[in-house]
Amino acid sequence: MIVSNTGNYIPVFFYRKEIIMKNGIENGYYHEITPGGFGIAIKAGKVLFSDNSPFQKVEVFETESDLGRVLTLDDLMMTTEGDEYHYHEMIAHIPMMQHPCPKSVLVIGGGDGGTIREVMKHKTVERAVLCEIDGMVIDACKKYLPTISCQLDNPKVEILVQDAIEYMKDKKDEFDIVLIDSTDPMGPGEGLFTDEFYTNVKNSLKKGGIMVAQSESPFAQKESVQKMYKQLKKVFPTVATYTSNIPTYPGGYWAWAFCSTDVKPLEYYNEERAAEIIPTCKIYNKDYHNARFALPNYLKELL
Amino acid sequence: MIVSNTGNYIPVFFYRKEIIMKNGIENGYYHEITPGGFGIAIKAGKVLFSDNSPFQKVEVFETESDLGRVLTLDDLMMTTEGDEYHYHEMIAHIPMMQHPCPKSVLVIGGGDGGTIREVMKHKTVERAVLCEIDGMVIDACKKYLPTISCQLDNPKVEILVQDAIEYMKDKKDEFDIVLIDSTDPMGPGEGLFTDEFYTNVKNSLKKGGIMVAQSESPFAQKESVQKMYKQLKKVFPTVATYTSNIPTYPGGYWAWAFCSTDVKPLEYYNEERAAEIIPTCKIYNKDYHNARFALPNYLKELL
Prior knowledge:
The structure is a homodimer.
Chain A lengths: L1 E3 L19 E3 L2 E5 L4 E15 L4 E7 L6 E4 L2 E5 L3 H13 L7 E6 L4 H6 L7 E6 L2 H10 L1 H4 L7 E5 L2 H4 L7 E7 L13 H10 E10 L7 H14 L2 E8 L7 E8 L10 H7 L8 H6 L5 H6 L1
Parallel strand pairs in A: 8-9, 8-11, 9-10, 11-12
Antiparallel strand pairs in A: 2-3, 3-4, 4-5, 5-6, 6-7, 12-14, 13-14
């Protein structure tokens, strides 16, 4: 047992040989350690918001790092001000540039608003629906992460605080692009990784429509990736994978599934919108876009 | 002050508000935190080797993680058994496949042997020189990281325990490929990041020769990257950049400089050796090779 000078016990996880690092902030550092025993550490600052919604623990904290403020859900890293564009530009522009005229877009999850912000850069968009189960995430991000949530008040954006599983049950021929910007396949995000749900998404797509879903870390979550692609392939004729660097996700590497009934990856590219949008991006450009679909051997074997 | 039940003081860095996480193993976890305040954490196991050479602290430890054993120098991550191929395949095959017949190869640094292992997959190689300043690194890796160091006893491999700055002073027209597999530009690696050294490397290259140097993390070490490329451009007519994922380097993303007097990147590709070598690789393939030179906007602006 270890006792501090104030007489308080120090949690046993600090004691060498019995250590299990918990995810979340402890002793000035935020940690997220994967089941594989490695992960990320960030010097944490003031906690700005921390509460339990009916679905999960929602927390926004300052960091004493180049990453700025951080959003975590159930103590798992969702996004940081300092690297959020790595994720949001990739989930949005890779499919959007491969559609000739995306007018109607659905984002499932994504309550921080970063994906919507990138979607709204496309002038063709007439209607963007954000279907997020947890209103607390939206409220916290509007208040504490304004550079990420800045387009949530755009009049073309319709915000539904609703379970996407319910919402998708009767959708037919409604969206050009569906982006699944979910948490991991545990907790509130779990039902978004089933073939039933993917079938409903497929039915919701118009002709030429594309679904992109975040599909976990190919290096750190190999089994999740494998399971998810197996299910996607049961539903969609085209299931491709693209990857990019996400500095604050374990392994630093992330995959997205590109799925469609009638579109194949890299068949079409909208040069006009690209010319407008690329100068606003920190990552995205046409060469980088094309390079995303080249996968390492170990990931090709997984899929 | 905090006192354990054995009467030992617990380091003050555990005490909230006064925490500065040190790099290295402490309380069961290895941490490497960049000056930017974020980094990696790995559940550490038994320390197999730890000693100070005349140049640096050399340590090999087990981890209780998917990463297996780890080599650190001055408490900075060098390589792990579990992800080393991400680095070694990229530093070696990207330039080697762009040379029609690499016979003579020099690796500077790289005492773990991983780069040499990949180089020796190319059957054209008649002579590979490893010039590593610190014999303790070579010895520790031969003993504790045999899957990485396994080609160091190949009779075609000449090992020089020597300062590469001295070694390179009089080299003319000797190597087809030079790979700078160094530590960061501080400590023993510092002199490998000067224009004088790069000029000596350029002189050591044969016609059609290529130098590749590890060039730090574009996300986590922006200033180092910028400074290094400025110097390289003073020396080499062609300076290109390629990047790939390294799970255990901060930011999960790494860059290499591709430099030559007379070769431009992606002009030539050796299909024959590729066909032999790709099946032995966990990352490397031709599509992935070509995609490496597509850079995110923020990195293009840095360079």
